[in-house]
Amino acid sequence: MSKPDHVRLFIPGPVEVSKDILEAQTEWLVGHRSQEFFDLFASVQAKLRKIYKTRHRVYATAGSGTNFWEGAVLNGVRNPHPILHLDNGIFGERWSKVSRANGKKVEVIKADFGKVIRPEQVAEKLKEKHYDAVAMVYNETSTGMLNPAPEIAEIVRGYPDTFFFVDVVSAICGAPVETDAWGIDVCVASPQKAIGLPPGMGMAAVSDRVLERAKEIEYRGWAYDFLQLESWMVKNSTPATPPVPMFFAADKALGQILEQGLDARVARHAELAQMTRDWAVAQGFGLFAEAPYFSPTVTVIENEPGPGIQYGELDAFLRAHGFVIANGYGPMKQRTFRIAHMGDEQHKYLQEVLDLIAEFMKGKK
Ligand SMILES: Cc1ncc(COP(=O)(O)O)c(C=O)c1O
């Protein structure tokens, strides 16, 4: 087994980032009002549009995905019209709290964590009354579930005045994402997941019609006011100081992703996820998410009921061998643990982690 020079991250963000991408952040800085930055910004923008599959703009600026949850709601939901949130995991739930915290009228379709919200449930709600937006998390990182976004998109497209907000934070570049084809109006992502970048940037693809509606809304905040972001985007910059080192890294990482091919990257994620699930089942574990909605980027494994391993001991064992996985999230903390397999992760290292967990379990028998 290789001797570790650092602890390799198998957690669902931030993920392991390759050395060349980390080093891209150490380029000499440039000012964000300089031609050098404008060129860098334009290059990143062109690549982001390709990974998002959108002809619209993709705002990218300091912050994280959470900031663009807030941006979506502040720029696209007009009081007193409600927003409909789909909540079947921690992040779906949290986004609804963010909408409430921003003074919006929130309604929720709730399912138990790990259970699917069916498109028909959304259809029934939309028939009842007008919603300014439907918001959902595509890949729910807390439960290891890939929610049926394309099917729900089809329902929402039947309501032309209802926007579709989708969180693809732990999906983009690891699962198929079709921003324009699915009719997503605000598509929120973070770099520190399947894109394989360090954290520090928030990203969102935003449709033209959101900008039109934003003009009707008086209080849109400032930092993530889309009209403000747009006014600077057309000049290839951002209203406030962006994380310039991140832009260097993003330019490089996105270039590599496009060179390798998005489809190949998505296929690799599917293989790693299948490998993890097959291993888990063979070891006597259950899978937390409802079949067949398994995430291609993170597998949430049921420890109780199941082998009931001591997570703290496993964590110490894995760290000593140069790896770290994640325990369960929120209420799933005791019951589950999570193995992320996203970004530039490869079969070889994943196999090492799985073998180590099996070895740990054998030692406990
Ligand atoms: C599905 C999902 N949405 C949103 C977030 C929050 O993203 P950020 O931490 O980049 O704000 C996370 C973080 O793990 C996530 O997994």
Polypeptide structure, described:
- This protein is an alpha/beta fold.
- The chain folds into two domains: about 10-15 and about 260-365, Aspartate Aminotransferase, domain 1 (Alpha-Beta Complex), CATH 3.90.1150.10; about 20-260, Aspartate Aminotransferase, domain 2, CATH 3.40.640.
- The protein has 13 helices and 15 strands.
- A hairpin with an 8-residue loop joins strand 14 and strand 15.
- Helix 2 (about 35-50) packs across helix 10 and helix 5 (about 120-130) packs parallel to helix 6 (about 150-155).
- Pyridoxal-5'-phosphate binds near residues 13, 64, 137, 141 and 170.
Quick recap:
By secondary structure, the chain is an alpha/beta fold.
Distance between the termini: 23 Å
| Uncertain regions spanning at least 5 consecutive residues | none
What does the radius of gyration come to?
21 Å
What general form does the structure show?
globular
Instruction: Tell me the structural class.
Output: alpha/beta
Number of helical regions? 13
In order across it, which strands form the biggest sheet? Answer: 2-10-9-8-5-3-4
The CATH superfamily of the largest domain bears the name Type I PLP-dependent aspartate aminotransferase-like (Major domain)
Secondary-structure element string:
EHHEHEHEHEEEHEHEEHHHHEEHEEEH
